[in-house]
Amino acid sequence: MVNLTIDGRQIKAREGMTLLQAAREHGIDIPTLCHNDALEPYGACRVCLVEITYKNGRNRLVTSCLYPVEEGLSVSTNSERVTANRKILVELLLARCSGEKVIQDLARKLGVESPPFRPEYIERNACILCAQCVRACQEVVGVSAISLANRGVSREVAPPFLETATACIGCGSCVYICPTQCIKMEDVGDTRFIHNWSVEFKLKKCKVCGNHFAPEAQLEYITAKANLPPGFFDTCTTCR
Amino acid sequence: MRVKATTGLINSRQGLEDLRRSLTAGRDPNKTCIAICTGTGCHAYDCMGLVAAFREEIGRQQLGDRVDVTATGCRGFCERGALLTIYPQGIFYQRVKSEDVKEVIAETVLQGKVIDRLVYADPHSKEHFVHQEDVPFYRKQQRLLLGNNNRIDPTSIEDYIRIGGYAALGKALFEMSPEQIIDEVKESGLRGRGGGGFPTGRKWESTRHAEGQPKYVICNCDEGDPGAYMDRSLMEGNPHSVLEGMVIGAYAIGSESGYVYVRHEYPLAVANVTKAIRQAEEHGLLGENILGSGFSLKVKVSRGGGAFICGESTALMASLEGRVGEPRAKYVHTSEKGLYGKPSNLNNVETWANVPLIINNGSGWYSQIGTAGSKGTKIFSLVGKVNNTGLVEVPMGTTLREIIYGIGGGIRGDKRFKSVQTGGPSGGFIPESMLDLPVDFDELTKVGSMMGSGGMIVMDEDNCMVDMARYFLKFLEEESCGKCLPCREGIKRMLQILTDITRGRGRDEDMALLERLSGNLVDASLCALGGTAANPILTTIQYYRDEYVAHIRDKRCPAGVCKELISYFIIDEKCPGCGLCVKACPKEAITFVAKKKPVLLDQERCIKCGACRDICKLGAVGVK
Amino acid sequence: MAARVEAIVAKFDGDKGQLVSILQDIQEEHRYLPREALEKASQLLNIPLSQIYSVATFFRAFSLEPRGRHLIKVCLGTACHVRGANRILERAALDLGIEAGQTTSDMAFTLETVNCVGCCALGPVVVVDDTTLGQMTTDKVVPMLERYRQ
């Protein structure tokens, strides 16, 4: 066990835990945007920054989602330096995604009103580039149907060649995980459309209840990956 | 004709020394050798044509048994290319053209006579300097690393062995233990030459002690700082010196697998190091069982894809793994978990090249050179508005003034010095008042700049500091990987603000906002690209605040650069009415009136492209 | 095309880590990265197509569009910038009628910028195909383009 202080509280944490995990375990809230417990920590949004002071007095800002707990560390989740930086991060996000609720909520919490840039430079992107969709598709689902294309200010989440995501199985993980719900999925009759990736899938019909419950492609993928017997998904999970 | 040396595998230290002796013996020190610089810079002066012309003429006159022609790597005096030296007299010629070949052979090669017009003459004193080491540009340098470029053909391992190459490797493998090598490098005080300045010996030690196999040694030749080309010249001109350093390092660390990562914009460097690796393997100096010592190291060459960020160690390693060049947090160092999650030691080209020097001459000798905190020499690329642009190698502690004026020959066109920028986009601008600063890792950092990889850009009164700050931000915006918020969005916003300022749309609150955003970059960025991106802005605000104020408050560009804030006009007294500018203007904004009468410039049509200013040698087009 | 991609991948022993070098060799043959070649590479290297697309769009060296017969690269490195490289770029763009990153409609020229080729002493520098042209001035741009038009 490792001993450290977070916001003045002495806590014990298991070796190998991150500061974020240790804080949350003890009910200390640190805001995040690109973090998801189901995925490897990414360190892109920088919102989870905390100020740490080492035993020798040296201090710095680190992302709590990635920094491992250390003996004798003193952590502040809301020091002046942390708050000042967090405010600017939210201003930058607001300038990019001015219409997104998740950003507006965070702004309100931090007392940020409007970004200090010229109005004609304010954008209304829906994507905050947290890359949770891409990471989920790669790490959890394992098909890597979408990826981050280009770099810098042109960076975007995209299907290959900005056309159809041919490897997509229609599971919708990207849709569910997206914090701004900017990936649009529609089930119409026996077809599922995920508009952003220009894909459509035939939905499997349950033998018993007759509901269209999941894309055939997704079920085929799971059957193969988990070595299930063919026809395993002829009945939907509710009816089973 | 070249003496064909043995290309057999050497499997002992003695074998190497025997080869060295036989190569030296087989070479007549009195035989004339014309060594021509064929670094990429000189390619633009048609050095390859010059080499071909010499070879052809020597063949035609059947002088082959008396005269050798060697194509060497970069000599550094790029301002005066094409360059050559005639040995054994050491006669140094500059600005040589193919038309000069016959005369050089007839006069200097056959009769030993010096051709005055090809000798370097000081522009002020007119004094002639026949030998390279006397030329003021070279005299004040200490060319421990680059000096060997003069004497060897980089595609010949025999040349390198003949001048003492791989002797350090022999000593390291057979006389020293890995721990002793690490101690020696630690005591030498060698610090990373890529910009980080981290103590090399300590990095080697951490990698040696880290858990995990295999361990990797990596050479960073992704020299991305615009204006810097030191690594290119070392890698093109003496790739074996870098490889030798890597083998010694790999042995000390316990690594058997290495990579050399070269920018794809450096095709000659890629070609030369690939060739060097193959030759070293053929000679038993790389690969399996090196020199019969039992130690093996395999080195692969990998090319970059045009991304400045891949000069950052974790992004470089990602690229080596076939992924995009996205850095990761370095809370766990790459010496513990680097390439493929294994302990990896990454060093810059110049750092590796210093290693054989340290092993051959000892840490005691090495640590005498330089300052208390920065040992050894450093190669700088001195470019911009200076007279003698080129590569300069000086002991650490040499002052900026000595470099810019003593070696660089001062500002070209007798203009006024305004600033010197060091450290590339991560560095800062240094004003005239600080020209007596010694080049030293810590001294430069103290004033807000940094050593960086060695780029040294000189600016004069005609450069606008706000424009320069904007330039670096634009560069960084293009090169940002885009992963983290402060860098991707922060730099974008700062660039918008700076662009507005250069266009006369600056607001009073902009300076404070730039400083605030800079603070965020420093504190919150994921990697050093973002973390140091604010340096150009912060130093220009600190030392050249008046220029910002002029742009924002007065909508004026004092240096006459920012297009929206300036206008061109004809200086009637200077214009002879020749009409050259009329033809050059793409917008037909200048009208010819009559011979001997000044031309007329239409402000409405003028786009300030500069074609007229460039073509008019009488300076009749002014800027205000 | 498939056979060529196979040969290139084989040259690098199918090593996923050498993806950038493999893509460069593919591009050298076709003057850009054809989609078909990337799909084949994805198959042979067992790398998801989306990741190859990610790498191909991340690195500036790559083009997914066919390029012109002559590639004009204007260096915008600091040393060249300080000597007025921007004006060279503007002049070239003006004369060719395209922006940096684009190709002329007759497929004769592609205009690009590059962030330092290491010839700083000769700045401003323009690289046309494999030739490095130093000490460029705005008045030399049009004659230079004319020479290559022949």
Provide a concise account of the structure shown:
The complex is a heterotrimer of chains A (240), B (624) and C (150). With 240 residues, chain A is an alpha+beta fold. In chain A, 25% of the residues lie in helices and 20% in strands.
Structure description:
The complex is a heterotrimer of chains A (240), B (624) and C (150). With 240 residues, chain A is of the alpha+beta class. Chain A has helices at 19-25, 80-96, 101-110, 132-141, 173-177, 216-225, and strands at residues 2-6, 9-13, 49-53, 59-63, 74-76, 147-149, 156-158, 185-188, 191-194, 199-205, 212-215. In chain A, strands 2-1-5-3-4 form a five-stranded mixed beta sheet, sandwiched between helices. In chain A, strand 3 and strand 4 (59-63) form a beta hairpin. In chain A, helix 2 (80-96) packs antiparallel against helix 3. The longest helix of chain A has 17 residues, at 80-96. The radius of gyration of chain A is 22 Å and the shape is globular. The mean pLDDT of chain A is 95. Chain B has five domains: 31-138, Glutaredoxin; 157-367, NADH-ubiquinone oxidoreductase 51kDa subunit (Rossmann fold), CATH 3.40.50.11540; 377-460, Roll (Ubiquitin-like (UB roll)), CATH 3.10.20.600; 465-552, NADH-ubiquinone oxidoreductase 51kDa subunit, iron-sulphur binding domain (de novo design (two linked rop proteins), Up-down Bundle), CATH 1.20.1440.230; 567-623, Alpha-Beta Plaits, CATH 3.30.70. Chain B is built from 24 helices and 19 strands. Chain B has a five-stranded mixed beta sheet. In chain B, strands 2-1-3-4 form a four-stranded mixed beta sheet, with helices on one face. In chain B, helix 7 (167-175) runs parallel beside helix 11, helix 7 (167-175) packs across helix 14 (349-366) and helix 17 runs antiparallel to helix 18. The longest helix of chain B is centred in the middle third of the chain and has 18 residues, at 349-366. The radius of gyration of chain B is 26 Å and the shape is globular. Chain C has 150 residues and is of the alpha+beta class. Chain C has a four-stranded mixed beta sheet with strand order 2-1-3-4, covered by helices on one side. The model of chain C has no long low-confidence stretch (mean pLDDT 91). In chain C, helix 6 (85-96) crosses helix 7 (138-149). Chain C has two domains: 2-58, no CATH class; 70-149, Glutaredoxin. Chain C has helices at 2-11, 19-30, 35-45, 49-58, 78-82, 85-96, 138-149; strands spanning 70-75, 109-114, 126-128, 131-133. Chain C is built from seven helices and four strands. In chain C, a hairpin with a 2-residue loop joins strand 3 (126-128) and strand 4. At the A-B interface, strand 4 and helix 2 of A face helix 17, helix 18 and helix 19 of B.
